[in-house]
Automatic annotation (TrEMBL):
Pfam families named in the record: Syja_N (PF02383)
Name of the protein: SacI homology domain-containing protein
TM stretches of this protein: 549-567, 573-593
Key words, A-Z: Membrane, Transmembrane, Transmembrane helix
Residue ranges of domain SAC in the record: 126-474
Superkingdom to which the source organism belongs: Eukaryota
Organism field: Phycomyces blakesleeanus
Native organism taxonomy: Eukaryota, Fungi, Fungi incertae sedis, Mucoromycota, Mucoromycotina
Record-linked InterPro entries: SAC_dom (IPR002013)
Amino acid sequence: MLEQFGLHISHDTYCFTPLYEPAKEGIASTPLDTLTVHRNSGLLELNAPQALERSQNELTVYGLLGFIQLQAGEYMIVITGRARIGSLCGSDIYRATTFQILHVPHTMPALTKQQMETEQMFINLLEDHLKQNSFYFSYKYHLTLTIQQQAALGQNSRSQWEEADTRFFSNRFLMEKLINATQHKTNPQDLSAFILPVIQGFVAIVSSVIQRRQVVFGLISRRSLERDGTRYFSRGLDIKGHASNFVETEQILLCDLPQSLSTTEHPLQFSFVQTRGSMPARWGQIPNTRYTPQLWLNNDLSNLDVLDISRTHFDQQIEHYGSQVLVNLVNKKGYELPVGELYRSIVEKLANPRLFYVHFDFHHECRKMRWNRVQLLLDMLEPELRKQSYCFYDATTPVLKKRQTSVVRTNCMDCLDRTNVVQSALAHWVLDLQLREANVLQSTEVVENDEAFISIFKNVWADNADVLSIAYSGTGALKTDYTRTGKRSYAGALSDLSNSILRYIKNNYMDGSRQDAIDLYLGNYRVGKGQLDINTSGKSWQIRVIPPAFFLSFATFVFALFFPSHLAIESSLLYLFLLSFCFAIVLVTWRFIQLHGSEFVNWPKLIQLPTSPEYISRPVAASRWTVTRSNTGLLEEAEEGQEMTSIKKKT
């Protein structure tokens, strides 16, 4: 697969011409394919005759992300910037830093004003999605596959995109045009050199030295596209058994042999895979502008259709990873109790011997910032961890010496903050075993004693938490002060408070647009030429007026209360009337917002969700759906419902 292209833009064509660096001139000894996109017809042509027409513009691009059809025709998205993350097994890994969206037809079709506005909205959604998330690619390394999966491929000659795990091939929909052309039955064109699988998630690669041995430490988190979405608009399982916020995280350790003369770079290759995903049942949280949203769940397990969705999910996971070690971190009381109880009931009903279930109430066990008590969970899981082992591939032989036979699937409410703390603790424990097997550490030594490396380890896992949290919740992760330093601090708790408030704002008032962007990018919503069938109706005037009235009255009340001298009001009666009037407006508008909360939420427009205002207005059968709401105060809700560290007053 080629690494750089010159994109020549003319009136009639886009032409991708491979480029190569002087250090890699050897690749130019064989003919290099060119790709031409005919702008009038949209047809792709491999090695088309060079046109005499001069280029109007030229770009250097590092990959083709794909094509997408909007109202004004087809658009092409190219990667125009990249940052090198590091190298794995001799292959460079990159993060895409900038993109460009190019209109394929040279002329813009006649669209109405409303269609033009909608077209611009689509473009903005795509640009925001590409800008706000992290995308990674490699021209040689199978980034969608674990080391264990790559070892199983052997010397397979198939193209990288053909071997890619479709769960993590994030631009699979955008690449349909090239894939279909390659697989065309009557007139195929092999465009494999231009099909670049891209993952969304997190990648870190750091070289280090432990006990005078060179090592490479890597972490790859692959976000699944099967039920991608934002925090409150994507919970639980869909009808196909796909889990929200499902992420496969692979910790990689590459080591040199001691005093090795081997020409293989880092021949000892270790990996340890974990997964996270929303609690595997039909449940959700309905945003309604309250700090803790309304919780609903389908707990009618006598209905086989309900139970079968969870069964399907676990069957899929067992097929991919083997037996499942299920770690449930939600609270055993309060707001989260029904979620934990439903999970336990599902596992009991399924009675699958390949499911090992542990419910560890993280907030209770680690209360008062005693986060070292995560060791209690490790002690419970140690027999299963030793049984599942890890991947060990010796590239000098080459032989897969050890296989990971099962996986730990961890969840909390969001599968972000608590989950990342536990996953990093499990990965730390396994890392000691791997370093001992590589003879980097002696049998009684632990990597914790190497301050330089352990700092790398903690910061990589904390960065992983932040990136995955931004993709799902819109903010950085909570509890990362513990992941980075091994200690919980009050400064970290205040940072968590700030992030939690920001999450509340984004999840209620901004996430509809983020969900639309995800659905558009993944092809869950497909736009037809000239199509205009989305819900563009605005909110009623009351809904538009109430929020400004609330904030203006509140600001005026605070200003008048604390800075009365700036008002130049001499009459005490008039001053009291102003305070009373502003306070009354604040109470009335706030009450209105509480009563009609769902109408103020920023809902997705492209795909109607079951949590839309129309759905909420319908009565829900009590026998089938359990709806629960915490009655505790804001700070306790923050701890139980929003994964905020509780801050309690001293009496």
